[in-house]
Every structure is written in structure tokens, then in C-alpha cells.
Amino acid sequence: MEKVYIGSNDGKPPMLDFHGAGDGRLYLNGQVFRVRGINWYGSEDVTTMPEGLAMESASNIVDFIADHGFNAIRILFNMEDWKDNIKVRQESWIVDGERNPELVDANYRDMLRTIIRHASRRQLLVLLACHRLRRSYKDDKHPANWPGTWNGLWFERNTTAAELLSEEKVSLLWSSVASTLCNEWNLFAVDLMNEPHMGFWGSVESTSYSDADWSAGAAKLGNSVLRACARLLIFVEGTAEFKTEWGESFKAARLNGLMARGPVTLINMSKLVMSPHSYGPSLYGADASLWKWFPERFTSADFPHNLPAYWDEHFGFLNEMGIRAPIVVSETGGDMKCCDIPKVLQRPRADALYQETLLRYLDNKDAGFFYFCLNPGSHDTGGVLLDDWVTPDMDKLNLILKSTRASQLVRTQAPPSPPSSPPHPPHPPHASLPSTLRSRSAECDVLSCPFEYHMCPPNERRPSQTGFCDLDADCVGDKEFCRAGTKACPKQTGCCVVAPTCACPPEYTYCRGPSKLHKGPFCDLDKDCVGDNDFCREGTEACPIQRTCCVTTPKAGFRSGE
């Protein structure tokens, strides 16, 4: 794990500055920060607190999370119980008071604060996610029969409840959440609404859905949070389209022209994080009633190689276009076993392949994730913990730890000097122009790179004198499509470079060390690089002395490794 130093452990809370910088990555105090988190559910429904506390202490569960490579926890809650601040339930099947004396007779807000503080002891970050407005939608059994009668929106229209949770009321409640918990240093973000699948990106003509603009709704809720606690990140989930998962799709935000200013307009755009959900076959395989809805992408002959194009279409473009906000997938996971279902899907490792492919995809985009879930009781995904709430599922842990990079918060008396912080975007960036270069911004008299690029940090920039960006000096090239003549900034990694010798992309290794066969700065992947076994592409062939690896010829340059 890459260490991020956050100050001395002298009893004072550390100061954390999380932000995006217009280059598609998340930063903490000037360093790239990669989230590797886990979901811990229960406090959003009728149990009123996270699951597992009847069998283990909250302290021990948090220790397990920290000791197994995670740096953050996504804690779920509901707005109704926050509003009413009820006493949490005390039945023995929900909580063991001897193991968790701090939760005996606690109210709902204190319960959430207690869990957050347990996490802070181990330098774990917390994302607080509004998973539902009400604790129950005619689904009082446990676990709740999600989604019950929920309308798929972030507010209520018509309800028999005593008090309508209107958009205005929910906005005020978010302000209450942010102001109440702002002093908890490790609460770094809020997730405005779980899977608002009935929302739209932009306005619609139908009067029945005229109030369901998620772009405007998320802006209203997010700005309420930022006015109450300016340091928090705002996680915004996607909506849904046919044969996509709830919360997964931002496609309509691009089609409706929202990307130039940002899918959501916040008072501080550097606090915006795009947070899709993405699940594989086990979400469908666990329930026979869903088999008829099995997406074609899971049954396709080119699975799993077809998946990156699907993700690019629905959310992968978010950190490459317009304001280039960071991406953190707030839910993904699965049982690692699905599916062997006759006449539906007979690929016993399909779910594992899905997860491996997605985590690699996110790694290549410097994107983070929260795995679903810690709890063993999830019927369609299972958990990282087994039924005793002590024993880990090592197949899942090995997948997560092997496939991803992550950052680690470290308290130290003498932290090393951090690298220069990227500039905070003061306003949403201008729409990208189709030209190769863009002129100086009329608003702020700074150079603007085209949307395929992002700016070098100011202290490493050598501005041209022409009023236009010099791509060799001012702009870091796009990771996926490096152009001839681009260079990386001196201290940047993972960017496009023109190397004196070829560099294989991170999915490949060298056939025989840096090749002497190529005749230019770019690798000839047919001759120089051994491809990844799991990602063979069309038209690939093995190096002469390799029999199991695949290689391909690049269409345009290469991508350097870190």
C-alpha cells in the first residue's frame, strides 16, 4: 500500500484535504489517493445498527477491516432514523451489550458517531451513504426485502407517512448530517442517495417526471452538505438504463450535454466524485426470477473481454471528459462462484472473471472502489467474512489484494515532504473544443489543455509564449491514447511519454527484456511485449518463445507503466 502521511499522532485530529484536480484522480493533501474500501450494512434498515455486533465487537470488526488491506468503510444509514434520532435496538440477536457497551441505549446519531470513531482509531476513512429514506418499505423482516415500495428517487412524492420527506426536507437533513459529524476527521465523504434508478440526467418533457432530474437534485443535496461541512467529498451515483445495474449508468449525462460543466454542479467542483455501482452475474444467478433478465454481456462469447467497452459507455468516460472528476465505485462484488445454470449461463467462474476484470479496469483508471460486502448474509454476493464473523473468505481477499493498489493513511511525527498539490479547479472547466489545442481561458488567464489531456502541476509547467498550450511542455497526455510528441511532466507517473527505448504497457511484460527489434520510440507489441494471459485481444499472437501469452500491435502508441 502507498503511504500517505497525515501528520503527527499528538491527539489532534489530522487535517485531510481530499479533492479532485481535473485529471480524473482523487488526491489527499497533494498525493494521489486510491480508495480500497468495503461496505458494512445493517444500520440502514430495521436493525438500526451494522450487522455482526451480536457476535463480535465493533472494535474487532474494524480491526479485521484495517488488518486486511482496506483503507475505508462505507456505512449505510436512513434519513428517517437520522431525523427521529431513535434509540437503537437492543435485542440480543442485534447487539451483544457486553462486547459493545458503548452501544447500550445509544441513540441513532451516537451509534453512527461511535462506529466512525472506532474506524478513526485504525486510520480508516468512512463514507456515510444514504441507502434509503425510510428504514422500512413494507419490508420489516430482516434482512429487508429491498427495495420494497421505494419509488427509486431521493425524495418522496406521496406517502402515508406522518411527515413527507420532500426534496427540501432531505436537503435540510443532509445539512444536519454534515454539520453534526463534520468534526469527525475520518468522515471524508457522503454518498447522497443509493441507486436513484428512477432519476434522469437533465430535464424531461413528461410532467410525471419533471421533478426527477438527478443532476439538479444531487446538486441541491450536495451543496447543502458543502455549506455545512466544506471539506467533505460528494459521491454521486448513476441512474439506470435497460439492462444496466441500478446506480451504474451516467450515459445520459453525456448524451444530454452535461459533461462540459459536469454532471452535477457543486459550489466546489473539486469535491465531486462520480460513484457508479457495478455487479456481475451473481446478482442475477442468486434469484431464479431474474434469470430471464440475464444481460447479454455475461453470456456473450467474448466475455469478459467485452466488459471494458460496456463500462466505458456507462461510466468510464467520467474521468476523461469535461471536468474529469474522480471515479470511486461505491458497490461491486459477488459470490465468486456463479454461474452454472442450465440454459441460462454455464460458466462456473463467470463472476470471478467479472470481478477480476473490473478491478483491473479500475486500477488502470486510477479509480477506487468499495467492495460489497463485509457481511456474510448478503444472499447474492456473500461476504468477505464468513458466518462466524471472524473467518475471512480468502478467495475474495486474495482477489482484492492481488488485483488492486491502495493508499494507506499513516500518522507520523515527521512526515516526508509531500509532492506538489495539483491545482484545484476554481470553476467547472469549459466545454472541450474539437481542436488539438485550446486557447487561453478568457475567465482566468490560464492555459487550458484539450479534454484528452490534463495540466502539469504549476511548478513543473513551462508555459508557451503563444497563448496556446504547448503539449510538450504544459499538458500530460491521455493514458489510453498517447499521441506522438507528448511527454510526461518530470514527476508524473502513469502518463504518456516518448521514451528513448520502448516501454510495454502495464498489462504486458517484456519478451526478452527491452527489445532491440523496434525502430522507434514506441513498442512493437508483436515483438517486444508479452501480453496478459487474461486479456487476449483479437489478432494477438504469442512471442516466438512464449506459448501461453498474447500480444497485439498498438493502434496508437503505448501507455507507460508506473
UniProtKB/TrEMBL annotation:
* Spans annotated as Disordered: 408-436
Family annotation (SUPFAM superfamilies): (Trans)glycosidases (SSF51445)
Q: What biological-process terms (Gene Ontology) are attached?
A: cellulose catabolic process
Keywords, ordered alphabetically: Carbohydrate metabolism, Cellulose degradation, Glycosidase, Hydrolase, Polysaccharide degradation
Which ranges carry the Glycoside hydrolase family domain?
52-377
Q: Which InterPro entries match?
A: GH, Glyco_hydro_5
Gene3D superfamilies per record: Glycosidases
The UniProt regions of compositional bias labelled Pro residues, in chain numbering, are 415-431
Please indicate if the UniProt record lists Hydrolase as a keyword: yes
Q: What GO terms are given for molecular function? A: hydrolase activity, hydrolyzing O-glycosyl compounds
Keyword Hydrolase attributed: yes
What family is this?
Answer: Belongs to the glycosyl hydrolase 5 (cellulase A) family.
Which PANTHER family would you find in this protein's record?
A: ENDOGLUCANASE, MAJOR EXTRACELLULAR ENDOGLUCANASE
Protein name, entry field: Glycoside hydrolase family 5 domain-containing protein
Species source reads Prymnesium parvum
